[in-house]
Structure formats: structure tokens, C-alpha cells
Amino acid sequence: MSATTGPPTSGTLSNATVIRRTLPFGNGNGSNTPLSAMVAESGDIKLANDDSDASDNDDPDDLNTRTKKKYTKDRKLGEGAYAVVNLGHRRATATEPAVPVAIKKIKVNTEFRDGITMDAIREVKYLRELHHINIIALLDVFSSKNQNLCLVLEFLDSDLEMIIRDTSQTLSMGDIKSWMLMSLRGLWWCHKSFVIHRDIKPNNLLLAANGVLKLADFGLARSFADPKRHMTHQVITRWYRPPELFYGAKFYSSSVDIFSLGLVFCELMLRVPFLAGNTDLHQLELICQWLGTPTEENWPGVSTLPGYHEASGTVVKERGTDFFMNTFIAAGESGVDLLMKMLRLDPRKRCSAREALDSKWFSQEPYPTPPASLPKKGGGKGIEKVGSDLKRKAGELFNTPDERGKKVARKLDFGGGG
Amino acid sequence: MEDQLYTTTTQCKTWSFGPTTLSNLRSSTNAAGVRSIKRGWKRARVEASSTTNTPLATTPIPSNNNTPTPIPADPSTIPDPETLSPSEELTLVNYYMLRLMAMSDIFSFPSSVKATACVFLSRFHLHHSVHSYHPKHLLTTILFLATKTENNYLSTAEFCKRIPKLTPEAVLKYEFKVAGGIGWDFEIRHPLRGADGGIMELLTALGSNSTDPGLQTLREKLGPNPSRRVTDAAGRMKGYLTKEALVSDVYYHYTPPQIFLGALWLADKELAEAYIEWRFSENSTMGRPLKKKKKEKKGKEKATEEETTAEASKPPALAPKLVPAVIACGEMMLKAQEYEKIPVDVLKRIDKKLHRCQNPQKFLGAGSPIGIGNEAPPQPKKQAEEAAPPEKKRKTEDEMFGGALK
């Protein structure tokens, strides 16, 4: 729609959609009602509405069924508190071969009695809009017979966390550059579309069989807030959470994602999480200790944040080039420069995704490895792992509490507009 | 010239139409609704002649049953009901949209929630005829869904407190139908943000000491107290954006910035034209390079698509083409005021017609109601699902939002 020409004529954009779009329509039937309930009504039982509207194209149940029938369910990849992930296939059609897909079935949440959960709402809302090679594709949405929401996602067989943890593989700087480049591109598109991901971490960076990296799990994402509207600070998995959120900032920007990705960058080099705090407080201590202590000098206004408290230990100056060069020498000068810009304490000083992409680092040798040549960890184990990534509740590190002890604070403060 | 980002949105890709396409779409949806009424009545007639005892001399449907009937009139002599025309459907939907706005005001929801709910309702009925889905059964569901998609979530318990006799079950019952019915496209691009941004931009520029010639001209055009004039216009503009823009079809035909400018034009023609001239004319002098840089930095919080449109438009002057589009958009909004003036008896007549369409059993003595929210008591499956039986639920809604049109 051009800004100048007024009403578009019924041209290219609209025509295809006019004729009854095959949308994934919701289904509202109560077929899971126990038989006893029917009997209770007694006497009057009819063959429920048999031929009713069966031929009607716009009956939502019918459309939902058609969407559902496009896919087969092959086997379960994993099950968590929040969702079940199945490996499936889109059935072959006359023109297209079968394609593997991941079907994420969002469980009816027993704690959440208010219909479609907020995670699912967010995920659907943003993935319907964001189309980018480095963002996971949402192919369809339908509801199962038990009123569970099913998201049909592009099937991706591994994630960056598996690669990082698999110490049998060496990762070259070209590989790291390539993953960073793809992550930043995905992030750039999110931010350009006014969406903040709010849960960037290695196991949300999924890898396709051809090596292409894709941002996944938009269960915590939100659009940029209107000025003056509060946002919740209870987001992002602890190890990747920026300091402003620990200080309870109510207004923040896409720079939170940049900080998280900066820590992923470190982790790619170190092969262990750079700052792995046991508690929120501990995490903040680690940030102060390793990146520097936020003060009015390096971060004007920080002391006005609601949760700000002066650090207990010694005040560490915000780390400069020397420290980063010592610790992350492998990245080279331009790499370290980029890293520092991503990890600035003051969110206003962090670079944007766009600025990061312009970093010299990406155009210098060693060049980013082409996706197809990147180290892989596909196969059986990869599939199971991604299954568990997809079903995890957003913001959590592990699937079970004892997998590694502490979970990340996760209760969202919906009230103020999370 | 186009805002590239906007062209990737579902609003542009699946929910923008030319006027002809839109009206064809409404006609075909109407036709499908009419068909489902016809089918329902046909079924009811078959039932009337076979299951209930009808006297049959005159019935065309074969039957050998000759017992007397409790029904006074012979069903077969009752004609099929008159169905609604596409424009009657639209009238009804728009009437309920006004009610939806009033409902949102009960909660004092932000305009984004209100506007999103209205767009949901309109889009839903673009593909679903009121013959099958009476809007009165969907209002609370739609409003509640909009609170969630606009990040303004409150629990159903809280939600129901504000509306007498409303139950969480009633709110959620059709949630999947609604969500699926709008194609799961939860993101709505409203002109509200761009409008806020535009007004902010105007006020900032007018308040500055800049001696930019374009700005001087703008100041001169706006009279003695330019800022005051902008603020006044902004108030009226917001009114148009939260009512006329939603009731009319402008969301289907125009981009959010065009709608913003259209509403501004309705609020203050001179101001809108002067603004467009200042911002988009050939020799527009608003210090673009400098300003833009600044904006990119702080602009993160401000999702004004209008900015992007403007950025892309440097060389050729946009203003001469933009103004007619803006005026057309404004005029389309203005027409929507007609919907508020529709006499009650016209609405009542439409609703009555619809009632007859949906309830063949009341006229034929057999068959079952058609469409959602009208689930017949003899359908135990659906009824058992609810805590409140449909009877009660319907009554609730009748009182609050549906039913009798006053």
C-alpha cells in the first residue's frame, strides 16, 4: 500500500486472499465432553447436528480440520510442563514433497484458567509477522480436539547450546562469526519490526540441517512499549539477563537482547556460560565483578532505578579493552571491540543490532564460515534436544527443577503490561 | 515509496483490499451465511414433517402421518425467512462495534485494546456471516482476547467482575473460534502510535527556536498560538482514530500513517495540509539529516511507521499525491458517522429478521437453532461444557450487550 495512491486496487496483494483463505481456524466443538454429561440430559439425545453445515466452507471447525489434516504426527520428541513437541510431516501434495515439521502442542495449563496462554499468544502474534531466514518459521496453527493449541513450526534439528557443550568439536573463529552474524541478522529483523525477544540464549538459537541459525521461542517477546508504559523486568534467563533488569528497570529497549547475545558470544569462545549465577543476586555480583560495577559515572541515572543498591564488594571499574583482550584474545581486536559494545553496562551505550552488523569484524579474516560448512550435531540426539528446547517454558534453563537446581524467576507481572 | 516493513505485515498482506474486493468478499460471506440458514430451514422442514405430527394434505414432503398437530399453522406454508443483505450485516456488525467500544470504556482499557478488539470483530465478520455468528455472542470473547494480545492481560475472574452475570466460561467459550476466525493474526497496526509521534514531532518543532524557513511558514499558517492549535486538533484527532477510523473500512484500504493524517485532516484541515506540506513537500526543509540521526537513537521506543515512510520519500515530493489520499481517507471515516445515526427501529428490524433466520424451530415447530450462541437445549454435548447453561448465558448477554436493541 503506497503512501500516496489511496485505496489499493484489487491487485496482487489481495486477490489471493479473497477466495476463502485456508486459514487455520479454531475449533470450538466440545467433543471431549464425558458421555455421562450427555446421559444426564436424558431422553432428548439426538445425533448431534449430523449434516449441519457440513458443506459450508467457512465453518471454522471444518477449516481447522483441514489444516490439521495437512500434517501427520510421527513421534514425540519431548514433553514438558508447558508443551509437547512432536516430530511430524506435512503431507506430500501433488506439487510438493513431504516436509518434516515440529508440532508444538501447548498444553492446557492447569494454573492458567484464562484460555489461550500468554506465551502462546505472544509466540503466535510475533511469529505470524516475522518472516526472516534467521527466525523460525511458523507454518500453521490449529487446535487439537482437546482444545489444545498446536503450532506447526519449521523443523530444526539442533541448537547452539549442543554445539557449545560438545567439547569434542573445536569451533573456529569463522564458525563463531558465522553464528553471531546469523543471530544478529535475526535480531536486527526483530528489532526493526519493533519486537524485543527477551529470551536470547544458546538453546533458543536453533540450527537447521543446512547449518542456518534461527531465533526461536518468542514466548516472552513483546513489542516496544508506548512511551511511559511499564514493562516487566522479570524476563530473560538469568545467565543472560542484563543489569538494568536486575535493578528493576521499568523501561528498557532492544538493548537487552544485545547484552544477552553478547554473553552468548563469550560462551561460544569459552564453551561454558560466562556468567553463571546461582541466584539473581549472585548473577548481579558476577556482572559487577567481571564487567564492572554500575555507577553514576559509567551509567548516569543508574541509581534512580527502583531496584538499585550499591554493590557490597569493591567497586570494579567498567572493564576496558585490556581486560577483554586478555580474556577473549581469540576474537581479535575488532571482535573484542564488538563484544565490548554489546556488553556495555549502560544500555544506552550498547550498540544496536544494525551497528553490530556493521562491525569490521565480520568483513575481516577469518571470514564467517558458510552455514553448510559449520560444525553440526544433528542426528538422533539433536532432535530430542530441540524437542526439549521447544517445549520448555520460556525463560527457563532446564526442564526439571533438579536438572541444575535453580530455575529462573518466571512469573510475569502482567499487570503493568509485561 | 512504500514502507517496506509495513508490506511484510499480515495487515498489509492478508487484510488490505481494494473497495471492490472488499465488497465482493462481504457478499460471498453473506451468501455462505444465507446458505447455512437455508440448509437449517430445510432440515427443520424435514423434521417438521417426519418427526412431529403434521397434517399432511398440503405438505409437499411425502408423509403418511395423519394425526392432528399441536402446531396451528402448517409448516410447509410458512415461507423461508427473509435473510440479511450484506449491507444489513455490516450495519449490525458496526452497531455491535459501537457497543464493544462502550464495553471497553467500562474497563477504561487503553485505546490500543479498544481498537484491536474492534478490528478483530470487523475482520472476523469479513469471513463469517452474522447469520451463523451473531456478534452479540462474541463481544466479551473478542475484548478479552484483545487484552491479551495487547499485553493488557487481566484474569477472566477480574474481567467478569465488571460485567454483571458474565462468567469466565462464557468469555472463553468461543475464544478458539474467534482466534481462528481472524486467522491467528493478532498483531494490528494502528495509526495511534504514528499519530502520537507526529503530534510530538509537531510540538517539538514548533517549540524550538529553529529558523528553518519551512517551519516559519508552518508557524505562520497556524496563527497566533500554534502549539495550542496542535494540541486541540490532537484531541479531536484521537476521537476520530478511536471511533470513525474503526467503524469505517479505512483499515482495509489505507496504511496507518494515512489514517493518522486523515484523522488529523478531519480535526483541522489547514493544520493537516500545512503539516504535510512542511514534512513532505518538494523543498521540505525540516532538517532531515540531523533529525533523523537523533530519532534513530531515541526512536526505539516510538514505532512510527510514518517516519519510515518519510525517510524513503526524499527525492520526489510526496505531498501532492498524499493530500488527495488523506482527504479520501478522512471522508471515508466521516461516512462512518452514519452508523451512529441509524434509527433504532431499523436495527431492531434487522435483528428480528436475523432472529427468525436463526430459529426455525420457533416457526416450524421443529428443527434446531442455527449459528453459535443459539445452541439448542437438546444438544447436551455443548451444554454440558458450560458451567452456566446457555439459557442463562444468553439472558446475561441479552441484558448487557445483545438482545433488545434500544
Automatic annotation (TrEMBL), chain A:
Q: Does the keyword Transferase belong to this entry? A: yes
Listed PROSITE patterns: PROTEIN_KINASE_ATP (PS00107), PROTEIN_KINASE_DOM (PS50011), PROTEIN_KINASE_ST (PS00108)
Keywords, A to Z, come to: ATP-binding, Kinase, Nucleotide-binding, Phosphoprotein, Serine/threonine-protein kinase, Transferase
Short name of one Pfam family for this protein? Pkinase
Q: Which SUPFAM superfamilies match?
A: Protein kinase-like (PK-like)
Q: Which GO terms describe its biological process?
A: positive regulation of transcription by RNA polymerase II
Regions of biased composition (Polar residues) lie at: 1-17
Q: Where is this region: Disordered?
A: 1-71, 362-386
Cellular component per GO?
cytoplasm; transcription factor TFIIK complex
Question: Which residues does the entry assign to the active site, renumbered to this chain?
Answer: D199
Q: What reaction does this catalyse?
A: L-threonyl-[protein] + ATP = O-phospho-L-threonyl-[protein] + ADP + H(+); L-seryl-[protein] + ATP = O-phospho-L-seryl-[protein] + ADP + H(+)
* InterPro entries xrefs: CDK, CDK7, Kinase-like_dom_sf, Prot_kinase_dom, Protein_kinase_ATP_BS, Ser/Thr_kinase_AS
The residues covered by the Protein kinase domain are 71-362
Which of this chain's residues are annotated to bind ATP? L77, G78, E79, G80, A81, Y82, A83, V84, V85, K104, K105
- Name of the molecule in the record: TFIIH complex serine/threonine-protein kinase subunit kin28
The top of its lineage is:
Eukaryota, Fungi, Dikarya, Ascomycota, Pezizomycotina
TrEMBL record, chain B:
Keywords attached to this Swiss-Prot or TrEMBL record, sorted alphabetically, are: Cyclin
Composition bias type Basic and acidic residues, residue spans:
382-398
Q: Which GO terms describe its biological process?
A: regulation of transcription by RNA polymerase II
Q: Where is coiled-coil annotated?
A: none
Q: Does the keyword Lipid metabolism apply?
A: no
By its UniProt entry, which Gene3D superfamilies does this protein fall under?
Cyclin-like (1.10.472.10)
Q: Where is this region: Disordered?
A: 43-85, 287-316, 360-406
- Annotated membrane-spanning segments are none
User: Per the record, where are the segments of Polar residues compositional bias?
Assistant: 48-57
* One Pfam short name: Cyclin_C_2
Indicate the segments forming the Cyclin-like domain, all copies: 98-180
Q: Where is the composition biased (Low complexity)?
A: 58-68
Q: Which GO terms describe its molecular function?
A: cyclin-dependent protein serine/threonine kinase regulator activity
Does the record carry Membrane as a key word? no
Sequence similarity: Belongs to the cyclin family. Cyclin C subfamily.
Q: What is this protein called?
A: RNA polymerase II holoenzyme cyclin-like subunit
Q: Per the UniProt entry, what species is this protein from, by scientific name?
A: Arthrobotrys conoides
